[in-house]
Amino acid sequence: MVSSKTLDEIDEARQKSKILAKPSISSFKTIDEIDSLKEREDLKILEAVFFISGRFLNMSELISLSDLNPIIIRDLIEKLKDKYEKNDFALEIIEKNGMWKMDVRQEYSHIINKLATGKAEFSKAEQETLAIIAFKQPIKQSVIIKIRGNKAYDHIKKFADLELIKKKKSGHTHELSLSEDFYDYFSVSEEERNPVPGLNEEIQKKIEDAEEEVERGEKSGISEKMVEEKNEEEIVIEDESEEE
To answer: Which CATH number goes with the domain that contains 75?
Structure first.
């Protein structure tokens, strides 16, 4: 038979174990500190991703590069925006059509223009396509496709997504022109917009020939889709001649 003293000791031990099992205020603080450290580390990772990429990134790219989930990423983006704004940083996070980019604030862009070449943001092929649009605007999309090939569709989509160009329906194609965002993006002042520098003679000749061919096609009912198919045929012929 268990004595009453022994039962009392067991009960006392149980009470002590319950007290020890209860999380203390200090342990809660430790959890908060861990969460805070994790958030700061995640913020640094996302900041590094933006800094190194130097271009607009969509959510899929941010997830892949940071290994963070989209809910955390969206929260951290807002925290980065708040951090740069409250602390008067020269940096900012720009958002356009579900894409984000770290950039220098507009008032400091003149410094960057002396150093940057734009290669991080656009490939050489994209730069060439954008240059033709900039120098010849407004210009028909079908003309651009005739000159630059079907890959220019991807270029034009990217420019439109970044709101650097405007697209207006024109018959079977679109008319392309620069938006105000283009001038802001590349820090082109009102005085610098005109006169527009000329293109070299070879490119100018290609544009004129393409415009004439597109115009003839439109008169005879040839659509942009037909121009695209013709471009593909020309590419195949070029590839076959190179193999020979």
So the answer is: 1.10.10.10
- 217 and 134 within one domain: yes
Residue type, 89: F
Together in a domain, 185 and 238: yes
**Residue 36 placed within a domain:** yes
* Count of domains observed in the chain: 2
Per-residue pLDDT in tens (0 to 9) along the chain, 244 residues: 545 555 565 556 555 545 544 554 444 557 667 778 888 899 999 999 998 887 889 999 999 999 999 999 999 999 999 998 888 888 899 998 899 998 888 776 665 555 454 445 788 888 888 888 888 888 999 999 988 889 999 999 999 998 899 999 988 889 999 998 888 787 776 776 665 555 556 677 777 778 888 777 776 665 555 555 554 544 433 344 344 4
Q: How far apart are the first and last CA of the chain?
A: 104
With a CB cutoff of 8 Å and minimum separation 6, the contacts of 112 are: 104, 187
Contact 187, 109 (CB under 8 A): yes
pTM assigned to the model: 0.50
The first and second tokens of residue 140, run together, are 């028909």
DSSP annotation of 106: G
Q: Could you tell me if 76 and 152 lie in one domain?
A: no
Domain for residue 16, yes or no?
no
* 198: Cβ contacts below 8 Å, ≥ 6 apart: 135, 204
Query: Is the CA virtual torsion 176, 177, 180, 184 positive or negative?
Result: positive
Same domain, 40 and 147: no
- Note if the bond before 197 is cis, omega within 30 degrees: no
- Residue 139, beta-bridge partner list: 176
Domain range for 215 is 124-243
